[in-house]
Write a structure and sequence with these properties.
Blueprint lengths: L8 H27 L8 H8 L7 H36 L3 H53 L9 H12 L7 H11 L12
Helix pairs in contact: 1-2, 1-4, 1-5, 3-4
């Protein structure tokens, strides 16, 4: 079932972890900018595509289908079975010649076995779909929670802005700055650097 924003209920669960994955992807891009390759040769897009494998799926749609099937089974099929059994019972009582009575009884028995098998099969299908919905919801929720809890907005205590500035400075050799000027730039970025702690310009 689609929400007003166009995403499924599973998409809404996945969205909980996307912000932190996006931040991680930006750190990965900085890593590539500095080293020439992504960590473990895995791009941010590949990482997010793997996380989004269940995108577009709907737990609610599966449960709605299972409920509809169960309701149909409980109402229409059970009523039909009772009606058919009743008609065969009437046939048996009206057609009391031994051969005919035997045939009616046999037909009644076969119908009962067939209806029972079909009913059991449909019940199993409904239960299987419900179990699949529960498993999907649990799996996606656990994945989103793991990302939320495991990933940080920082790497080694540094924000994306700090790391970006450090990479930029390192790539251009601090713009030809003297060692004192380079140290001052580091102090503006790194709180732990001797004398550091100023905000990044």
């Amino acid at each position: 079932m689609q929400s007003a924003q166009g995403g499924s209920d599973v998409d809404r669960i996945l969205a909980r972890g996307l912000g932190k994955l996006d931040t991680l992807g930006q750190f990965m891009s900085l890593y590539k900018d500095w080293t020439g390759t992504y960590p473990s040769e895995t791009s941010p897009d590949t990482l997010i595509d793997g996380y989004q494998q269940q995108q577009g799926m709907s737990v609610e749609a599966l449960r709605t289908y299972a409920t509809a099937l169960s309701n149909e089974l409980a109402e229409s099929l059970n009523d039909l079975a009772a009606e058919q059994q009743s008609q065969l019972t009437a046939l048996n009582s009206l057609w009391n010649e031994s051969t005919g009575s035997s045939a009616a009884s046999q037909a009644q028995s076969q119908l009962g076995v067939g209806l029972s098998a079909e009913t059991d099969s449909l019940s199993l299908t409904a239960n299987t779909v419900t179990a699949a919905a529960d498993t999907l919801e649990s799996m996606v929720s656990q994945k989103a929670s793991a990302v939320e809890q495991s990933l940080s907005e920082n790497v080694a205590g540094l924000s994306l802005q700090q790391v970006s500035q450090l990479v930029d400075y390192a790539k251009n050799g601090f713009g030809g700055s003297s060692s004192e000027e380079a140290a001052a730039k580091l102090r503006a970025i790194l709180p732990e650097y001797p004398g550091g702690g100023s905000d990044v310009a």
